[in-house]
């Protein structure tokens, strides 16, 4: 985006950015890990299965050099001989190839895991651009690859020279050994050389793997603006979220106002708070708060209560206690049972009086409504 242009990429990639990069095939990879794993495992597999492979090859050559006249001039017979001998090579050679295949897969997926992306496999003109090629050759990545190549040459040459130096006596013994013991001895030395030289390249792997992880993280770093934009996309912009919350509050208030006509009494702090209570002995074990509000909402509750001839009882301490200690559609706290019971008794007596039964009741005095200290609010 235009706002993020010119900004430094100082923020670590978010999980969403990392997932998007993975979908595009952008994962850390170490070619050195893949190639060295194949080399080392290949050397070990030759040490394990090389003898069986050598014996099978020797048997093959011995059989082919000892063909009879009939076998040579009969193509079908010759083919049977060749195929039969080649079958002996399948097991040792197949074992070596399977081990190499598995090591190649494990080495390739060892850093970055298994990931396939059509987008990464799709040909891109930018990759075929000579200018992009020169940038890769002479950029940071090209320099790193050059240093790794130099390090590999130094390691291989140094280890090979050291192995030759410490095995000079074995080389001299080869000249006095008899066949085929000298051949087996030479093969043992050669396999050990190959394994140790391949293992020396693990130094390059130890350097390359952390570098590839660091480089990958650097490429995925984001600017502060990109982090903010992504947060807006995933969580929603503050303006939209604020609008949604406002609409939710309005809907909740409308539902609450629709419940006010079901109230038995509205307890008020005449200027600021109103709490509508319902008590139905058939469905409520205790009085329930069905509506409450302050200022304009409190006034609206009182207007609806007056419209439906619901008793409005001014009791500031009790109204404040109910407003701050209750939630909608919940029963009142135990500590307010006695005070609310007095108010409800007054309301029920008032209803009887309006029907012409009994004397006009006296409204409970605020000073005599018991409100626990922990529920009192100024």
TrEMBL record:
Pfam family, any one: Bac_export_2
Gene Ontology BP term (one): protein secretion
Region (Disordered): 1-28, 356-378
Transmembrane intervals: 36-60, 97-121, 142-165, 189-214
SUPFAM superfamilies, alphabetized: EscU C-terminal domain-like
Presence of keyword Kinase: no
Membrane topology note: Multi-pass membrane protein
GO cellular component: plasma membrane
Gene3D superfamilies given in the database record: 6.10.250.2080, secretion proteins EscU
Location relative to the cell: Cell membrane
Family note: Belongs to the type III secretion exporter family.
Protein name per its UniProtKB record: Flagellar biosynthetic protein FlhB
